[in-house]
Amino acid sequence: MNILITGAAGQLGRALLATAPEGVHVSYVDRTDCDLTDPRAVRELVRHVSPDIVINAAAFTAVDAAESDEAAASAVNTEAVATLVAEHQGKLVHVSTDFVFDGTSSRAYRPDDPRNPLSAYGRTKAAGEDALRPGDLLVRTSWIHSAGGANFVRTMLRLMREREELAVVADQIGAPTWAPGLARTIWGLLDKNACGTFHHSDAGVASWYDFAVAIQEEALALGLLKRAIAIRPIATADYPTPATRPAFSLLDCSATRALLQDGDVHWRVNLRRMLEEEAQFG
User: Fold this and answer.
1) Which residues are in the RmlD-like substrate binding domain (predicted)?
2) Is position 109 annotated as part of the catalytic site?
C-alpha cells in the first residue's frame, strides 16, 4: 500500500512516520516540499506519488493568530482539504480538533454531536471536515504533545525554568494526547478500513492547570527541572486571548477503542513517556 503523509514535519507527521506498519510504503511532504494551498502543486504531487491513501496531518494550528488572519487559516484548514479531495480519488484521512465544539456539553463529545465552533480556527477546521466524502476518515483529537515538538508541555518546561511562579487556566477541561498514540490509532483505523468520524485522545480528564501541575511533577522526577515553582490556578477571564476556547472539550473515544479493541492509556502515563523521550534530547 502506498501512503502519502502531508504535514510530515509536525508532531503528528513525525509520529506517523515513526510508527508506520511494515509493508506500507510511505511518501511524505511538509510545507517546504509542497504548498497545499496551491492546487497545481497538489495536483502534481498526487500525480507524482499516486498514493492509495493520503493522511493529511497538515494544519494551521496558531489558534490566536487565526483570529486576525482567518483567510490564512482557511487556506490550509479548509481549502487545501477540498483540493486534496478533488485531486485524489482514494481515501483521505483528515485530522481535526476538539475546537469544532462549543464546550457547552455536560458529557464527552461523541463523533456525531453537533458542532458549533467558537473561534476562527475552529470554524476553518469544521469547514475542512465538511469537504470530506463518506468514504474518507476523519479523526478528531485534542491537546497534542510530543518530545521535541512545539506544544504546551515544552512551553511549560521552559517557563518553569525561567520563572518563580506560573498562573495557568483551570476552567478549560479536556484531555491531552500523545502524538505517537494518535498515530498508532490512525494506522489501526486504516487497518480496519474505517471511514466516517472517530475520536482519539488519551484517557482521563484534565484542565490546563492539572496538566501543568503533572508536567512539573513528572519533570522533577526525571531531572528535567531542578526545582519546583508555585503554579496558581486562574479563570479563563483572568487570561484573555484573541480566540475563544471551549470550556469543556472532552472527546468520547469509546467507538474508537471498541473498534480497535485496545485499552485506554491515561494521559499521565503518556506524559511520562513523552518526558522520558524529552530527557533523551539532553
Assistant:
1) 1-278
2) no
